[in-house]
Amino acid sequence: MHETEEDRADAWFHALSDRTRRDILRRVLAGESSVSALARKYDMSLTAVQKHVAVLERAGLITRRRAGRESLARGDVEAVRSVQTLLTELEAVWRGRIARIDQLLESSAQED
Amino acid sequence: MHETEEDRADAWFHALSDRTRRDILRRVLAGESSVSALARKYDMSLTAVQKHVAVLERAGLITRRRAGRESLARGDVEAVRSVQTLLTELEAVWRGRIARIDQLLESSAQED
DNA sequence: ACAACCTACAACCCTTCGGTTGTATGTTGG
DNA sequence: CCAACATACAACCGAAGGGTTGTAGGTTGT
Fold first, then answer.
1. Residue in B26, B91, B105 nearest the CB of A90
2. Which residues form the HTH arsR-type domain (chains A, B) (predicted)?
């Protein structure tokens, strides 16, 4: 079902709920960067940054490619747009003009 | 500072990172609803739903008004738009056309 | 008046999160 | 070759999350 879609949304918003991760995302949207280069910019261990990058990657907000000994991360702007789209759908619910409103609202409950 | 702005973003994304809360938000965007009416739609205790509503309220995504014995929640579409705006700024970083890019990227670190 | 209803909140439980240190492995440049 | 560097990952820790039950107080309708 679209159970998966909710999972994706969980991952997206959770990934974005940490300011360090948002900052990392900004940086790798502006330009590819290695994990250790990123780590140098924050007052925390390399491992901590590694974990943040992993969370962003699992959420699909960034991608990584191997380049020799370093792992280069790049922001995925399409994923960011998907999150925006999700919010736009919320807005559409408000405006009362979404066709899928039943599915959206019936997703995890019954009317009364 | 805009430390506060990061705090707001933390609260927004954290509030949105739970599917029950997103569902509640959809419902109260579609129309005002009491907490107990919401609670009837989910397979969890009233207290759990109360907490979810409280999280959404603290994040500024919904507002509440008292009507006799019930507390009516309503979604704040302006707040949803603010979250979208934040994502649009991320997109703008990617496109390299945001003027405030320095502030955005210098927010919690130094260049190297 | 009073039973049914709605909300509020404390206390507790288990899991997840964000961080740490420590160890291991692969890569590079001189 | 080998030292410096980049990544990976396990193990641990305290704090925060999401859920529960239990108790209590305001509202409402008959």
1. B26
2. 1-95
Nearest to A109 among B41, B80, B83 (CB): B41
Is there a contact between B50 and B62 (Cβ–Cβ < 8 Å)?
Answer: no
**A47-CA/D9-C1' distance, Å:** 9
Closest nucleotide to residue B18 (Cα to C1')? D18
Asked if residues B6 and B107 have their Cβ atoms less than 8 Å apart, the reply is yes
Q: Quick one: how far is CA A62 from the chain centroid? A: 8
**CATH 1.10.10.10 corresponds to the domain B3-106:** yes
Domain ranges of chain B: 3-106
Whether the predicted pLDDT of A105 surpasses 80: no
pLDDT digits (tens, 9 = 90+) for B40-65: 999 999 999 999 999 999 999 999 99
pLDDT of residue B41: 96
Give yes or no for a contact between A33 and A67, defined as CB atoms under 8 angstroms apart: no
What sign does the dihedral A25-A28-A33-A37 (CA atoms) show? negative
Mean residue pLDDT of chain B comes to 90
What integer pLDDT is reported at residue B109 of this predicted model? 47
Size of interface A-B (CB pairs under 8 A): 116
Residue with the two structure tokens 């703008």: B92
Q: Are B110 and B98 in contact (CB under 8 A)?
A: no
In this complex, the residue with its CA at the shortest distance from the C1' of nucleotide D26 is: B69
